[in-house]
Amino acid sequence: MRARLSGGHFRMINEKLYTCTGDEALNYFKEDPSLFDMYHTGYQEQMSHWPEQPVNIIIQWLKAHSSSLVVADFGCGDARLAKNVKNKVFSFDLVSNDPSVIACDMSNTPLDASSIDVAVFCLSLMGTNFSSYLEEAHRVLKPSGRLLIAEVKSRFDPNTGGADPKMFSKAISDLGFTSTLKDFSNKMFVLLYFQKKGKENLTRKGIEWPELKPCLYKRR
Ligand code: SAH
């Protein structure tokens, strides 16, 4: 009974996060931070059914590259990434339950411009204003810095109302990135990696972002 109730709460909070802006989500958790723990208990339960965790793929990527790369983990959850690599990692989420996590809306981080080598979004492009998170990543990344995105696969399946991955990649390219990897081989998530272009006078106006549909989890 208790598990059922908390599963219901998880699905409700999850839907809220996918249908509001980051700013609204920040206020939502500020009013009741216990909802954040409820969300993460449910999230971990869902993840335990995934054969592979995307965060582990990102951890492997970082381990295969220089540990001197400075990382920003946008929407870090329990900061598993920071705990498993030697790199300096700035971890951001809406609520901080750990001194290493900086609580903020990730469209507005305290990082300096051009200060980061790798920006990570692992299942965290949740808000309806997700493009402003990617703009923030572009701001804080150094030229040639990497942008690593792992997202729920169904959100990029046009056959079931998901976004066209080509349109999504094109929008990110227009923001000032080059695509370096598109991996659709995993059943549960896609990996889309990019590299920031050098200094260019880019305009953010006129970029056509697709809508990313919410990832709603089924009752198990
Ligand atoms: N990256 C982690 C957690 C994924 S869950 C992992 O792979 O395990 C998605 C996380 O993104 C949640 O913890 C949620 O609170 C966070 N998030 C969503 N929108 C955010 C925002 N606007 N600012 C900061 N964090 C956000």
Question: How would you describe the overall organization of this protein?
Answer:
This protein is an alpha/beta fold. It contains 7 helices and 7 strands; from the N terminus they run ααααβαβββαβαββ. The protein has helices at 2-19, 22-31, 34-47, 54-63, 80-84, 130-140, 165-176, and strands at residues 71-74, 89-93, 101-103, 116-122, 141-152, 177-183, 189-196. Strands 3-2-1-4-5-7-6 form a 7-stranded mixed beta sheet. Strand 4, helix 6 and strand 5 form a beta-alpha-beta unit. Helix 1 (2-19) crosses helix 3 (34-47). The longest helix is centred in the first third of the chain and has 18 residues, at 2-19. It starts with a helix and ends in a 24-residue tail after the last strand. Bound molecules: S-adenosyl-L-homocysteine. S-adenosyl-L-homocysteine binds at residues 17, 22, 25, 43, 55, 75-77, 80, 92-94, 105-106, 122-124, 126-127. S-adenosyl-L-homocysteine (SAH) is lined by residues 17, 22, 25, 43, 55, 75-77, 80, 92-94, 105-106, 122-124, 126-127.
